[in-house]
């Protein structure tokens, strides 16, 4: 991963450090009002930095969502993603454009954004001697078939850009949101994790980097794995087409060629034959040697040749954001929080755990009513 490490400064600057700068401003404003803590929304905070990071790495410049506080692009992409999910589930229903007028408007907006991005980049370097950007958009523009020399068409380019925006933002930001939600609902786990981070990295003036976090924070690794298991960011069905010659599943099921098979990661991650107390948030299951082996059963990034291309970038975001914010801030739910340790689940398989924020799923999953349910109170930790 040497090439990925070279991108870490951009991930830190536009991720954890940018978010902490925004949150520090909110704390300063609260202090000016003689308040002990500041109210922030972690869902929108995590989505903002995810967009800003993919803006820098994918298009050469940040979207500046975190600094501006303008969430319009986030809401628009969410509407477009919902439409894609509806099309995949019920293509006939999705043809009723009048029923999903707002979503189709969002799709048109995002297509225009992607089209304009590539057109602007092409014009920029056709009329300039400047060295091209070293980002994903430039790689797509320069890509060609080695056999024919054919380049990616403009239409395909738009599709690739939109895929990059969805895959590079929704997944990591929702995983961060679910992780913090689970920690806030399980105070003992949050306390243990913060103790680990603050003991290993007491110097608040130096940001915690990816490699050292992964090496020195085993409990953070366990928390992230358990969060991805129990709340899969990609919880919808992932279709796969059987090759023409067909295949055999589990040594007994003959599947004809061209059959579409749908895989549910959420179902895999809640399979009671694989996971003891599958409905419980228990990072301990990923500690020690057995935990390292069990981590292979977390399929959130896929497996084999179809494994997520952004896996290492996602891990970098998850480690650096969680480690840095949990070291710097004391975090708690507001008194009027609907969900938290005070509200226990009625699910007998949850063994008395708190009821967590409901999620809605099309392709990716997202918490219900994040504007209200993802509010937290933060204050700077005075003792590390």
From TrEMBL:
It comes from the Eukaryota. Its cofactor is heme. SUPFAM superfamilies: Cytochrome P450 (SSF48264). Heme binds at residue 308. Pfam families: p450. GO terms for molecular function: heme binding; iron ion binding; monooxygenase activity; oxidoreductase activity, acting on paired donors, with incorporation or reduction of molecular oxygen. The keyword Metal-binding applies. Keywords: Heme, Iron, Metal-binding, Monooxygenase, Oxidoreductase. The keyword Heme applies. Belongs to the cytochrome P450 family. PANTHER family: CYTOCHROME P450 (PTHR24305), P450, PUTATIVE (EUROFUNG)-RELATED (PTHR24305:SF108). This is Cytochrome P450. It comes from Coemansia guatemalensis. The lineage of its organism: Eukaryota, Fungi, Fungi incertae sedis, Zoopagomycota, Kickxellomycotina.
């Amino acid at each position: 991963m040497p090439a990925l490490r070279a991108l870490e400064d951009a991930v830190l600057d536009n991720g954890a450090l940018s978010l902490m700068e925004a949150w520090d401003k909110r704390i300063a404003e609260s202090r000016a009002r003689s308040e002990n803590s500041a109210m922030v929304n972690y869902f929108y905070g995590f989505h903002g930095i995810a967009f800003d990071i993919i803006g820098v790495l994918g298009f050469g410049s940040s979207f500046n969502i975190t600094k501006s506080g303008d969430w319009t692009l986030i809401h628009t992409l969410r509407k477009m993603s919902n439409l894609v999910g509806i099309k995949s589930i019920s293509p006939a229903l999705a043809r009723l454009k009048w029923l999903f007028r707002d979503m189709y408007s969002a799709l048109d907006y995002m297509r225009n954004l992607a089209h304009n991005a590539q057109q602007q980049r092409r014009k920029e370097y056709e009329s300039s001697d400047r060295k091209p950007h070293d980002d994903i958009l430039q790689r797509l523009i320069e890509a060609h078939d080695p056999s024919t020399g054919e380049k990616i068409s403009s239409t395909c380019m738009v599709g690739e850009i939109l895929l990059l925006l969805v895959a590079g933002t929704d997944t990591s930001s929702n995983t961060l949101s679910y992780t913090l939600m689970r920690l806030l609902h399980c105070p003992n786990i949050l306390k243990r994790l913060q103790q680990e981070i603050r003991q290993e990295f007491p110097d608040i003036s130096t940001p915690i980097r990816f490699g050292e976090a992964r090496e020195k924070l085993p409990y953070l690794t366990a928390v992230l794995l358990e969060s991805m298991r129990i709340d899969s960011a990609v919880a919808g069905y992932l279709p796969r087409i059987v090759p023409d010659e067909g295949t055999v599943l589990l040594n007994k099921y003959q599947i004809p060629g061209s059959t579409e098979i749908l895989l549910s990661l959420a179902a895999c991650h809640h399979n009671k034959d694989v996971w003891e107390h599958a409905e419980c948030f228990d990072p301990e299951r990923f500690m020690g040697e057995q935990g390292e082996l069990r981590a292979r059963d977390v399929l959130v990034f896929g497996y084999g040749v179809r494994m997520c291309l952004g896996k290492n970038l996602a891990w970098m975001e998850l480690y650096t954001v969680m480690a840095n914010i949990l070291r710097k801030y004391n975090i708690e739910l507001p008194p009027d929080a609907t969900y938290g340790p005070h509200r226990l689940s009625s699910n007998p398989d949850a063994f008395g755990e708190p009821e967590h924020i409901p999620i809605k799923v099309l392709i990716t999953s997202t918490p219900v009513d994040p504007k209200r349910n993802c509010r937290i109170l933060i204050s700077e930790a005075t003792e590390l």
